[in-house]
């Protein structure tokens, strides 16, 4: 079987990956489409730093602890797939059913996240295993390429749900990469009446408008805080200095939701947040209900993800796609269609 894997910091294609065999409670699926996530790009470039950060973090399981960067790493967690076969005694959708799932594989040894792994094959492969109880059949004849974006859209929906934003409030989204775009789409889905989007890239600002932003701002031409008085600010950049700048400029009482994942040490001035009584909430991922709601919203036409898809490659094109995604003027989301 063929799969694109991370080897020595670069994506390469293997033709000799062992065929996955479904066990009890599992299904074998053929991958229809898999989105390339920014976290995959970051892991490819900064895997050692991510493993080190995971090892230092207390209070939750280190899901990266068993990864060996000297061995091929499987990735790909934004996927849709076609059911091929089920494991022994497994109640699963019929063969041919198009499905998606939260990226978790349940096995006799426990839970394996389908994100980065030396053993569990992800969506950058011809076939993979999924857990039957977690499968969501794709409804309404939805294009499998669009269904593959359920996962990133659930990230945006989780951020919006966490913010408790109301229809009459103004929301400001800082950064219009895939996370920021997903937040904008979720804000529009929730009926927020004033959505302001800020990004240096004209291409990303245009996409933000197509996805639901009412106002777009080029921060090089003036602060977005001068164009609006937001009740909620979503930080979706994840770079050092951004959060401190938001805290310095945000109006008193603003709720700040940090959805961008900053992997580098950063410096902030807590006085800004204290003096203005800002509320800071860091978010990550989503829950299963938000994943299911995102799929339903896409399938029913409440969220149109088509404008986000700016490229499509086969397995042989994954390495080039990783490089191309570094240019914000060219791409938002590239799909891998094995």
UniProtKB/TrEMBL annotation:
UniProt keywords, alphabetically: Oxidoreductase
Gene3D superfamilies reported for this sequence: Medium-chain alcohol dehydrogenases, catalytic domain, NAD(P)-binding Rossmann-like Domain
Leader sequence segment: none
GO molecular function: oxidoreductase activity
Segments forming domain Alcohol dehydrogenase-like C-terminal: 178-299
The keyword Oxidoreductase is assigned to this record: yes
All residue ranges annotated as the Alcohol dehydrogenase-like N-terminal domain in the record: 23-139
Alphabetized Pfam families for the sequence: ADH_N (PF08240), ADH_zinc_N (PF00107)
Organism superkingdom: Bacteria
InterPro entries xref list: ADH-like_C, ADH-like_N, GroES-like_sf, NAD(P)-bd_dom_sf
PANTHER family cross-referenced by the UniProt entry: ZINC-TYPE ALCOHOL DEHYDROGENASE-LIKE PROTEIN C1198.01, ZINC-TYPE ALCOHOL DEHYDROGENASE-LIKE PROTEIN C1198.01-RELATED
Protein name: Alcohol dehydrogenase
């Amino acid at each position: 079987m063929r799969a694109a894997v991370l080897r020595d910091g670069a994506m390469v294609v293997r033709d000799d990956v062992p065929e996955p065999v479904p066990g009890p409670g599992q299904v074998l699926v053929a991958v229809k489409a898999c989105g390339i996530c920014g976290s995959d790009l970051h892991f490819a470039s900064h895997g050692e730093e991510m493993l080190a950060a995971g090892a230092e973090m207390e209070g939750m399981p280190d899901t990266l602890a068993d990864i060996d960067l000297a061995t091929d790493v499987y990735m790909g967690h934004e996927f849709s797939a076609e059911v091929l076969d089920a494991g022994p005694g497994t109640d699963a959708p019929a063969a041919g059913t198009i499905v998606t799932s939260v990226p978790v594989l349940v096995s006799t040894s426990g839970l394996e996240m389908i994100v980065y792994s030396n053993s569990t094959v992800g969506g950058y492969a011809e076939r993979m295993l999924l857990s039957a109880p977690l499968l969501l059949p794709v409804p309404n004849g939805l294009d499998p390429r669009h269904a593959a974006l359920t996962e990133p859209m659930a990230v945006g929906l989780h951020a919006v749900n966490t913010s408790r934003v109301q229809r009459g409030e103004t929301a400001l989204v800082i950064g219009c990469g895939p996370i920021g775009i997903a937040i904008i789409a979720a804000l529009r889905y929730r009926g927020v009446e004033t959505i302001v989007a800020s990004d240096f890239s004209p291409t990303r600002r245009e996409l933000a408008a197509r996805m639901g932003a009412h106002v777009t701002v080029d921060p090089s031409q003036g602060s977005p805080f001068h164009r609006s008085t937001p009740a909620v600010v979503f930080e979706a950049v994840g770079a050092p200095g951004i959060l401190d700048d938001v805290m310095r400029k945000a109006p008193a009482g603003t709720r700040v939701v940090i959805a961008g994942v900053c992997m580098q040490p950063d410096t902030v001035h807590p006085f800004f947040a204290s003096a203005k009584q800002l509320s800071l909430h860091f978010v990550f991922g989503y829950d299963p209900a938000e994943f299911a709601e995102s799929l339903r919203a896409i399938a029913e036409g409440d969220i149109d993800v088509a404008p986000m898809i700016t490229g499509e490659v086969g397995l042989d094109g994954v390495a080039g796609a990783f490089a191309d995604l570094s240019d914000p003027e060219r791409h938002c989301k590239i799909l891998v269609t094995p």
